[in-house]
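re the bet — no i am not wrong, look at it urself. input seq straight from the record:
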Amino acid sequence: MTSDLQRERLAYKRSRSRRSTAVALCSTLVFALVAWFTVTSAPGWPRVRDSFFDPGSALSSLPDVLSGLWLNVRVLVVCEVAILLLGVGIAALRTLRGPVWFPLRAVATGYVDLFRGLPLIICLYLVGFGLPGLRLTGIPNDPVLLGGIALVLVYAAYVAEVLRAGIDSVHPSQLAAARSIGLTHAKTMRIVVLPQAVRRVLPPLLNDFVALQKDCGLISVLGAVDAVRAAQIDVARFYDFTPYVVAGLLFVVLAVPCARLADAAGRRLATREGAR
């Protein structure tokens, strides 16, 4: 049975929560009004409005941009799977111990250093134009495939470092306990280490994939007709920049759910760690 004191505390907390919500809504509304007034009162606002926020151009370009966005989504899904597999492999190589594994560790370290330091746009140019230029049998010419390869190469380096940090965060006693009951190194990594490592680094992993969502639009530099290239075509057709705004908003809508998921995963991890 709830006591009178506890009921008073709950009522006080509810009142504070309602007050905080009301203050937040009011402050947000005031900020939005001030921002809107500042922008719309600028001398060049009518020209910017006609060039970037034309409703007719937005509606006309929406089908083309949506069709291109579907290509970005497919590239995103395939690249995420490939990045996870490659990232796990590289992270596992970097955590190998013993002098006999030094060549593999050196290759994995060199890969991470190279592709973390190489700008994505340059990697896209090197892969997208360099590989077909070799004219070797079996080298693809599809800009979507080549762009996906470049995305996987760059983002796998970041994911590998995140996973390696998660693996190193697992206490050595976990490995020793697993080996003491007869598990091999591979089974220890798969059953004991990786599940704990992935759970600990899930928020930064999700943040990397949020960044990957928008960077999938860079495959347009190779000629792939994705959302960005479709918007570029419509910009030339309508003689204004509204299609770019449409494409940008669609990318934001695509990224917001994953961003909120990353925030929720971070809060859940913080709560779990704080409860220990």
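see?? The mean pLDDT is 85. told u. also The CA atoms of residues 127 and 150 lie 6 Å apart. so pay up
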